[in-house]
Write a structure and sequence with these properties.
Helix 2 packs antiparallel against helix 3 and helix 4 packs across helix 7. The chain has 8 helices and no strands. The termini are far apart. The radius of gyration is 19 Å and the shape is globular.
Length: 193
Amino acid sequence: MPDALSDRADFAALQAGHASALERIVARWEQPLFAFAWRYLRNAADAREVALDAFVRLHQQRARLRADTNLSAWLFTTVTNLCHNRHRWWRRHPTVSLDAPGDDAATPYDPPSGAVTPDTALVDRETLAAVDDAIARLPHDWRVTLLLHHFERLSYGEIATITGCSPRGVETRLYRARQALRAALAELAPAKK
């Protein structure tokens, strides 16, 4: 994760009107925000659009934000809200993909060549797809908390700031998300036998 001192300095420069400060912020935060959005949305184009929209909003609201704004929390909160809005829009406007089923070109997981047999690779891919699907079915608050903790490696305090709940609430959400994942994956295990 980028460091808070650089964020504070660049955010102050951005508020003072230096365009290069936004470029430095984007360079530092584009990949972590894209990765989070991709895990949430599971669509590279939409994830990239959401991450870039967060930077546009930062630029638009720079004068309204307090000078001591926690930039990482603000960016992740914005991306979380944008992802949630996009996901709700998808539920209201379902579409059918014209891509071939099982086309995983945008999936970051690709087993090393020669390391596994094709049947093992297929089982691994199916398992990852099942985990992805189980995560996608979690309620928004649980999914965001799980993704921020396990993939972005944020502390309970940082997640609490982003999600607007207490660190104890983060712990509870993580527990419930893990329980829901265990239950969803336990249902899958007998079906594979």
